[in-house]
Amino acid sequence: LKSNPSNNEEKEAQTQLTKSDELQRLHSQALSAYKQEDYEATISLLDEILAVCVWDAELRELRAECYIKEGEPSKAISDLKAAAKLKNDNTEAFYKISRIYYQLGDHELSLSEVRECLKLDQDHKQCFSLYKQVKKLNKQIESAEEFIREGRYEDAINKYDSVMKTEPEVPIYTTRAKERICHCLSKNQQATEAIKVCTEVLQLEPANVNALKDRAEAYLLEDLYEE
Prior knowledge:
Keywords: Disulfide bond, Repeat, TPR repeat
Structural class: mainly alpha
Protein name: DNJC3 protein
TPR repeats: 91-124
CATH class of the domain at 151-226: Mainly Alpha
Region (Disordered): 1-21
Number of helices: 11
Number of strands: 0
CATH architecture of the domain at 151-226: Alpha Horseshoe
Helix content: over 70%
Radius of gyration: 25 Å
Organism: Psophia crepitans
């Protein structure tokens, strides 16, 4: 304005200045809401700021934290992926994305994201620790699936038992392992055991189509046609 004063430019500058003050006020409110653990309010305020400050990586990371707390992992991943692109060497974002995928049971995508972290910093302790865990689990699941394709059902069952021991803390891996064990037992004509394991899966996931089909096959082996 000092170098080139004109009515239009002054009006534009005043508008932007007012908007800037408003965004700073919203930012203070967002941080305050976050400290009070009101994550829904924080997200709402950050939505307004990020509509204008689209390229702010730190605000996206903060909103991702709120989405995680609110149980919306897919939205958190979206913000973290943007933050990983916006900020150079953002190992923290890749680590968090990998953790979320891992908790959701998507071990392959988890492995892919944690590798991105290690490309940026091969000495990153958290990423390396997670990498070792996911790689081990991934290898066991791949090996088990290979046994199933080959019809080596006993070997596959043993391998899925190992999966449950490798990751006892994240329930989805136990459920998926049991679902595949139920399949192997049914294919291996171990009807009684198959019915037991399939039923365990269906108590957790009543609409699990694979477990329903495999239990049906096991009932057929036992001549339990009504069931």
